[in-house]
Amino acid sequence: VAGLGRGRATVFLAPALVLVGTFLVFPAVWTLYLGLLDYSLTGASAQAPNFVGTQNYTDALADPLFRNSLYLTLLYVGFSAVLGQNVLGFLLAWYFRSAPRPVRGTLTVLVLLAWILPGSVVAFLWQALLDRENGTLNALLHTTGTAWTIDHPMAVIIIFNIWRGTAFSMLLYSAALSTVPASHLEVARMAGARQWQQLRDIVLPTVRRHILTNTLLITLWTFNDFTPYLLTGGGPDNRSETLPVYIYKTAILNGRLGFGSAISLLLLLANLVIAVVYIRLLRGGSDEAALRRAERKAARAARRRQQSQPAVSP
Amino acid sequence: MTTAPGAATVRHVVGRIGLYVGICLLTVFFALPLLWLVLTPFSRNPSYRAALSGFSLDNFDKLFHNPQTWPSLRNSIYLAAGSALLVIVMAALASYALSRVRVPGRDQLLYGLLLLSSIVTGTAAMVPIFLMLYQLNLLDRQFGVVLVLTGGLLPAAVFILKDFVDSIPRSYEESARVFGASSGQILRHIVLPLIRPGMATLGVWAVVLVWGNFLMPYVLLSNPDKQPAAVVMYTFYDAGGQPNFALISTFALVYSVPVVVLYLFVNRRYGFAFQGGIKG
Predict the structure, then answer these.
(1) How far is A74 from A88, CA to CA, in rounded Å?
(2) Nearest CB to B273: which of A95, A136, A171?
(3) Is B280 touching A (CB cutoff 8 A)?
(4) CB-CB under 8 Å, B120 with A264
(5) Mean pLDDT, each 10-residue run in order, chain A (314 residues)
(6) Contact list, B19 vs chain A (CB under 8 Å)
């Protein structure tokens, strides 16, 4: 131990562990317990919450608004992240390989800006874009008077999130595509393979793992994304009320803390499933690499044995 | 080849045209929402319209004379700097200890915490965190928000910084010890200077994430005097519910600039993009 006893190490570690324990581990565990109570912010059950068992969960499953928000969340994640950001990010990364420098530079800056600007700002930018009377979109399409956020709230937040989050997929796929050996593509091109054939037969198998990683990460983030609230407030008539917005409204605004906790737990579990799949995937990757290393080693040993055999047995 | 050369050329040309049209549309799609942020702050009659109706800097004058502008930016700075500072100090101490002392189950602990921090997001934990701060009497206190945000950022921060500490050869510390340096001196004069780039990266990362965070201050702070820029932006409405465009447009610009600058700084200096930790 270089200059650091076990005691001092504990002292160094303690502040971080205490903070993480209090504000990350404890809330997660507490949700489990709170979800079993009829805890509310006001009224009789604020003072002495009762143990109600799994009633919050049965209530939630029976609540059409909850099922609505679950369905909307799946739509939101599926179309904006899994399909939208994923495909658009990949296409951008693919196009950038042969794109003229100024085009690539311009697009990269724009896509990155959409990603790094604070959520409050981009939400307002989109409100300006979609405004009924003076919005840029209506001016361009000559459709003044169309209230996009009221007529098509889900489409709006889905397209918004594609705009907002494609940068991550683009960056990840750009890095992934640079690992595809150029010589393989060269050979395929000389054999007369078209772009999409190269894509299907060479590129996609090579970056398969990156695609999975990317899909899982953006799924996790989009699942927990609160920004739709800033754009539509979950409305009109709960028609864009994804799960995070639903939790905020029921638990914080309406003060149904126990019920909200029960639903939070479902969100936590969904996150857990995604994260565990992701980690297994990463670990699977290292297993595979280890396997390949072992195979190479075995092959080398076999070759050495072959070479050395004549010399050993005269 | 079954297709005639002519058909192949036609297909090629059509493909090219299709590609250019697609790229143009995509550029417009990504640029269009940003137009408002660039034009409206300088417009004489700011509205939802993304157009420059006469150049003027009056809007900035209004912004800087608004009583909410400076306090909210100061609150943002307080939250961001406070969280970044706590994250850096705690992560540095923890990652040094984890890197240098063989604790059984250390890697599992680190992975477990990292896993946890990606699962326990602001949205999923908003109820228990709200309730906990309520009972700790930390609700509507900025310090409470700093603690919550720091707790969320720490696992990833320790993970990143431990890599930096691991790369420092132990022989540096051992030879210092031979010459009679105390643990404190070793930490201060050898370890800290070597992991400073890692700490700077972490700091920028934490500042950007906290600066843009809307949900936590929105849920945990109710007093408008304590709210950061992310939340205050949504209070610039007049009595009729109409947004005050002069204020919102300039405020959005002023509030965005630090993030873009920090991003450029990190990108130029370290050449990578940062993202992760608590979102939303």
Answers:
(1) 19
(2) A171
(3) yes
(4) no
(5) 69 90 91 87 74 86 91 95 95 90 92 92 92 88 88 94 94 88 86 84 87 90 91 88 93 89 90 85 65 69 61 38
(6) 95
CA distances from B123 to A54, A267, A273, B128, B206 (A): 22, 9, 16, 10, 18
> For B35, phi and psi rounded to 5 degrees?
-55, -45
DSSP A253: I
Query: Which residue of chain B is at minimal alpha-carbon distance from A258?
Result: B127
Distance CA B85, CA A264 (A): 30
What 3-state DSSP class applies to A95? helix
Measured CA to CA, the distance from residue A279 to residue B107 in angstroms comes to 14
Is the confidence at residue B269, as pLDDT, over 80?
A: no
Of the two residues A135 and B52, the one the predictor is more confident about is: A135
Report how far residue B274's alpha carbon sits from residue B210's, in angstroms, rounded to the nearest whole number: 13
pLDDT at B37 over 80: yes
What would the pLDDT profile of B153-190 be if each residue is shown by its tens digit? 999 899 888 888 888 888 888 888 888 888 778 888 88
In chain A, residues with a C-beta closer than 8 Å to the C-beta of B231 are 120
**Cα angle: B5, vertex B10, B12; to 5 degrees:** 95
Q: What is the pTM of this model?
A: 0.86
User: Both tokens of residue A299?
Assistant: 């092959």
CB B208 within 8 A of CB B262: yes
Q: What is the ipTM of this complex?
A: 0.85
| Cis omega (within 30 of 0) for bond into B71 | no
Between CA A139 and CA B160 the distance in angstroms is: 47
A120 and B230 in contact by Cβ < 8 A? yes
